[in-house]
Design goal:
With 297 residues, the chain is α/β, with parallel strands linked by helices. It is built from 13 helices and 7 strands. The chain folds into 2 domains: 188 residues, Vaccinia Virus protein VP39 (Rossmann fold, 3-Layer(aba) Sandwich), CATH 3.40.50.150; 79 residues, Putative methyltransferase TM0872, insert domain (DNA polymerase, domain 1). Helix content is 42%, strand content 13%. The chain has a 7-stranded mixed sheet with strand order 3-2-1-4-5-7-6, sandwiched between helices. The longest helix has 15 residues.
Length: 297
């Protein structure tokens, strides 16, 4: 496992938009970072608001360690919780936190997770087919690749990765397994893919496997509901999504929420990163930023 000093701090996406959204946040209640990662957004919020108390959730123990290091100077104002955000209610109750003045969800995966070959999220370097955000979890990508049926594999590649070649890829996987290496899987996918469209042909399949392993999509709406129920008046929630499946769930949730008189969307359309940010941080290119406010009548 890599040492903290060897890991680069993840560059947070759309930090300017995040700070603008929470510019007038109340110091009452707690601010919730539901996807703490390396602590970039948390650091920006804590620096901008000297009275804010922050609770940071992340299921990745390595991410918690990096965030603790990054946020050491705010130690008396931060509580770290090493669980997935679907457990928000239980953990906030345990901490006797009833009210939240703001919350941010930065969905998807961090650069450090992608860049660590031991985690198996990327095919840029060789590693085992792991892809677990929570490494105490037993189920991993290799289980899908080597144990699931051809139809099941094809379905997740199509549903979670929008992969049009899902059936031919699934057939090749079943024919050539066992497979345990990220490079071997990526090369196999490449060999049966017809069009590259500017990105590596394994990109969508790796995304789909990661989403499935970590149950990412099914946890989003329950977590948003839990946070919404704890907002104080004028409390705000911001969500960054990077995948069409994520953004569709968030958009639908906000559409339903807007029908209630006590909630208002801060922006009618999703905000996108500036061209300058994309040039400086290419992984920001697919980001979509949405936010809402609780204003009881």
């Amino acid at each position: 496992m890599k040492l903290l000093m060897d890991m680069k701090l993840h560059k947070s996406v759309m930090s300017a938009e995040v700070l603008e959204t929470f510019a007038n946040i109340s110091p009452e209640g707690f601010f919730l970072d539901a996807t703490l990662g390396d602590g970039g957004h948390a650091e920006a919020i804590l620096s901008a608001h000297e009275q804010i108390q922050l609770v940071g959730f992340d299921r990745d123990a390595q991410a918690i360690e990096r965030a603790e290091h990054r946020l050491a100077r705010f130690a008396n104002r931060v509580t770290f919780v090493n669980v997935c955000f679907e457990e928000l209610d239980k953990e906030l109750t345990r901490l006797s936190i009833d009210e939240i003045s703001g919350a941010i969800f930065d969905l998807g995966i961090s650069s450090n997770q992608l860049d660590d070959s031991e985690r198996g999220f990327s095919f840029q370097t060789d590693g085992q087919l792991d892809m677990r955000m929570n490494q105490s979890q037993e189920f991993m990508a290799a289980d899908i690749i080597n144990e699931w049926s051809e139809e099941e594999i094809a379905n997740i590649l199509y549903s979670y990765g929008d992969e049009r070649n899902s059936r031919s890829i699934a057939a090749a996987i079943v024919e050539n397994r066992p497979l345990y290496s990220t490079i071997d899987l990526a090369e196999l996918i490449k060999s049966v893919s017809k069009k590259f469209n500017g990105i590596h042909p394994a990109t969508r399949s790796f995304q789909a496997l990661r989403i499935c392993v970590n149950r990412e999509l099914e946890q989003i709406v329950p977590a948003l509901e839990q946070v919404t129920a704890r907002l104080i008046p004028k409390g705000r929630v911001a969500i960054l999504s990077y995948h069409s499946g994520e953004d569709s769930l968030v958009k639908a949730y906000l559409r339903d929420l807007e029908k209630e008189p006590d909630f208002s969307l801060i922006s009618r359309k999703a905000k996108k990163p500036t061209q300058q940010e994309i040039e400086e941080n290419p992984r920001a290119r697919s980001a979509r930023f949405r936010s809402f406010e609780y204003i009881p009548i």
